[in-house]
Amino acid sequence: PIVIKILELPRWSFKAGAGYGTEDRIRLSLLITRLNFMGGGRSLIMNAHHSYFTPFAIETKLIQPDLFFKTTDLIINPYYSKEREESYTAERTGSAVTVQKNFNKSRAYISYSYGKDKVELASETLIDEELSSDKKSNIKSGFTLGFNRNSTNDMFYPTKGWKINSTATITGLGERSLYHYFRLTGEVSWLIPVGKTVLAYKLKGGVIQPFKGKESTPIEDRFLLGGAMSLRGWGRHQISPVNESGDKTGGNSMLEAGAEWRFPIVGIFSAAVFSDIGNAW
């Protein structure tokens, strides 16, 4: 005989975190979730975090499941953030509306976003000569197509399988936009078990291409590499093209790859030997 008991999860949940890193310094985060928001199985998710590189960021997701069809979700995502980089600071405000279709271990989505980025450049040598201004604010309107797949065997400690993540974005719809460009990104990683150890590989690339006769792309959307999750021999975002004054300008294209050998030590502890390669142009 089998007895199955079904209990509803608490409708409110709160998660908070705090930490310290040598680069991003004090880190704080808060995640608030409300299940079955206003009925209909909707979810309301509010996320806020702080670090040196992101002094303040907050976003809200309202998720309406099974919109029109089963496993098709509508996501409304307003956001506000302040970002700090060596070459600029950015204040981003906007919202996105996404329709997402969930498959077995995969999902595809189309998203429309509209927002304004207020950017302050750290040096006059970074001023966009094509626009003859320092681009104090930039209206952004565009669509993104995305596809994700995760076939790994475990969410937290995967040992085999592969993952793919790709996006294609067109930004610059409407006459108020200063920049008009395509942005393509793709990443694939796969895991191969070898006895009690795991070989992990990663390949990632991206390109930004202006159109409508433009030659410039916004500095806040260009590629910067380096850090804990990218080219781990360098500090965060230290891999970048530079101008004649040595200011980091960010790249319109990037490519990186990595290989890693993961092995257990004792109990919950494990270690890895890795090699990374890549650049931004």
Written overview of the protein:
The protein is an all-beta fold. Helices cover 0% and strands 58% of the residues. The chain has no helices and 13 strands. The chain has strands spanning 12-21, 25-35, 43-50, 56-64, 72-84, 88-103, 106-121, 137-150, 161-171, 181-194, 197-210, 253-266, 269-280. Strand 10 (181-194) and strand 11 (197-210) form a beta hairpin. The radius of gyration is 21 Å and the shape is globular.
Briefly note the structural class of the backbone.
mainly beta
Question: What overall form do the CA principal axes indicate?
Answer: globular
Oligomeric assembly: single chain
Q: Summarize the biggest pleated sheet.
A: 13 strands, antiparallel
> Level of helix content?
under 10%
Query: What is the strand tally?
Result: 13
- Summarize the helix and strand pattern as letters: EEEEEEEEEEEEE
Give the strand line-up of the largest sheet.
Answer: 1-2-3-4-5-6-7-8-9-10-11-12-13
The number of helical elements comes to: 0
How far the N terminus sits from the C terminus, by CA atoms, comes to 64 Å
Radius of gyration: 21 Å
What is the strand content?
over 45%
Uncertain runs with pLDDT below 50, 5 residues or more? none
* Average residue-wise pLDDT: 92
